[in-house]
Amino acid sequence: MKFHKDKISEVLLHLTINLKKSFNDHEVEKQMIRRSKISTIAFVIIACSTVLSFGVDALLRDGTFTTVITAWPDVEDRSFGAGLVRIVIYIIWWYFVVRLICVFSVIIPVTILLSHQFKNLTSYFYSLSEIFHGDESQAEKERKYEEAFKLGIKWHSDTLRCTRLCQDAFYFVYSGQILLNISLIILLVVQLVMSERTVTSTLANLITFTSLLVGTGCLMWNAGDITVEASKLPTAMFHSGWHNCRAQASRRIRPLVVIAMWHSQKAVQLHCLGIIKMSYESYISIIKISYSVVSVIF
Asked: Residue 53: CB partners within 8 Å, gap ≥ 6?
């Protein structure tokens, strides 16, 4: 994330300022802000609950306070120094979790912002038909429509560029997180099956399992929304009002609309690991794969 901070800054600049200067659907913006808050707060709460639950479980169990097993101190070492070191290690664990939360607190809003930018573009193209409802002459309406449609094509191109920048900036985070989550889901299910089922340990494992599902979902659901919202753009272009143009204006506009629709029909998708599409279907597949591996083991 630090290596790609310039790309991330550029994406945020375009999505929050440059692409909002001339047209901004306030209802879409409200939806984007509300969804960003809900998704980010939900992930932060669940991630913090995971670390806290393991700390509480370690504190309430018989024996020593152990959340992370280290080479030293030994698990059965009950000295004051060993207990102090375990507390320090727990705090260090918190430090790494906070860094992870910060990374997700950037990625989740940016992907939501990108999906809602496609939604904003869709609203923009639908609004172009209102140009022909004014009192100007037909020639003036056609001129305004042509300029507005070309501007929409430019915004679409800029939005696609932001998508490519997001793919480059977040690719390794997506890939690493998906691999890690698949491994941890499998290990947690195995642990739930084989470990001693006390109330605190079971609750800690369930909270961790929920955190993994939500964390993976926050990445894949919001990235999948980019594909869904981008797929609605060709329909909006078709209903933008091009049929109101006449004579020479109609002959200029129709090829422009056809080319723009053809370009927008190409699926916009984020990928991880080179082959996995970030989508709702891939999320379900990952959960099924994890369950299938555990089923084979047992």
From this structure: 200, 203, 204, 207, 208
Neighbouring C-beta atoms of residue 63, cutoff 10 Å: 9
d(CA 124, CA 191): 51
The label of the residue with tokens 């990374």 reads 103
**β partners of residue 276:** 272
In DSSP notation, 99-127 reads: HHHHHHHHHHHHHHHHHHHHHHHHHHHHH
Phi and psi, residue 154, nearest 5°: -65, -45
The reply to whether omega before 73 is within 30° of 0 (cis) is: yes
For the chain, the C-alpha Rg in angstroms (whole number) is 25
Tens-binned pLDDT, residue by residue, of the chain (298 aa): 889 999 999 999 999 999 998 899 999 999 999 999 998 998 888 888 888 887 887 777 756 777 777 778 887 787 888 888 888 888 998 998 899 889 989 999 999 999 999 999 999 999 999 999 878 889 999 999 999 999 999 999 999 999 999 999 999 988 888 888 888 888 877 877 777 777 767 777 787 788 788 878 888 888 999 999 999 999 999 999 999 998 888 999 999 999 999 999 999 999 888 888 888 888 888 888 877 877 777 6
Closest CA to 292 of 182, 181, 205: 182
Residue for token pair 């790609």: 4
**Distance separating alpha carbons of residues 35 and 32, to the nearest angstrom:** 5
Alpha carbons 193 and 127: distance in angstroms, whole number: 56
The whole-angstrom separation of Cα 207 and Cα 196 is 16
Q: Which residue stretches of 18-137 are H helix?
A: 26-60, 80-127
Which distant-in-sequence residues (6+ apart) come within 8 Å of 36 by Cβ?
A: 108, 109, 112, 113
CA nearest to 97, candidates 49, 164, 65: 49
Tokens of 267: 């699926």
